[in-house]
Amino acid sequence: MSEYISDEEQINRFNEWWQANGTVLLVAVGVAIATIVGWNIYADQRQQSIEAGTAVYAEYAEAEDPDARQMLAERIKSEFPNTSFAALVALAEAKVAVDSGDLGAAQTALNTAKNAAPDALLSELASLRLAKVEYAMGDTAQALQTLQGVRSAGYESWALELSGDIYLAEGDSANAFAAYSRALENADEGANRPLLEIKRDNTAPANGEFSPFVVPLDQALQEARETLASDDDSESTPNE
Questions:
Q1: How many CA atoms lie within 13 A of 56 on its CB side?
Q2: Which of 10, 55, 184, 214 is such that its CA lies 20 to 30 A from the CA of 30?
Q3: What is the pLDDT of residues 11-42, one digit of tens each?
Q4: pTM: predicted TM-score of the whole model, two decimal places
């Protein structure tokens, strides 16, 4: 008797296997093909959407007529929600609102930008600006809470520095020092942040005790900048 299965027996076994499993196999292959085709269609549609959004945003950025610019802004928010284009438009609207002194409108626009941004960096940029507006509106607790949500490597150090500024303005030297110290620890490697170092040093405890900071924040920052400027001048002056 042959050691090998005859061709006829192999065909019979294949037919039996196909009757038992052929339908399942066809369905699996069909699903795989549909998935590939569906993904390609989605990718093509997404690319077309990105290209269309880019074109409209370019028109918006270059528009000089206020009415035309506003119409393009509304079109972007309507046709391309939850995209970088919508977030950038909202950030621009927030700046206009701040410049005109309308902090309420700025807060609304920044919340829109934060929610529309498809990535953490753009969302947290909106959060940094939102915290400034919230503090300017007198909502210190909300501003600090907003800053606590900023955790990306690109912005965390700046959020901590801004938190320190708020604590300092509120007379809380201990928390200001802690925030400035953490901001320096989280700064990008090799980053030069001399103003932040001055803030940290000026809020450090003396003999283990923190003193109330009575100089207004804007004045303290101006003095720090003047110190930096004088240091730069002395370093650039040639020895006689």
A1: 24
A2: 10
A3: 555 555 545 655 555 545 555 555 554 544 44
A4: 0.70
Kindly calculate the radius of gyration of the chain based on its CA atoms and give it in whole angstroms.
30
Strands of 108-177, DSSP E: none
Domain ranges of the chain: 61-139, 153-233
Task: Write out the two tokens for 169.
Answer: 């303005």
Residues in the chain: 240
What the block records as the tokens of 175 is 């928390």
Whose CA is closest to 147, among 160, 133, 138?
A: 160
Render pLDDT for 61-84 as a digit per residue (tens, 0 to 9): 888 898 988 998 998 899 888 888
Cβ atoms of residues 168 and 213 within 8 Å: yes
CB atoms within 10 A of CB 112: 20
Among the listed residues 75, 112, 78, the one whose alpha carbon sits nearest the alpha carbon of residue 129:
112
CA 174/CA 164 separation, integer angstroms: 9
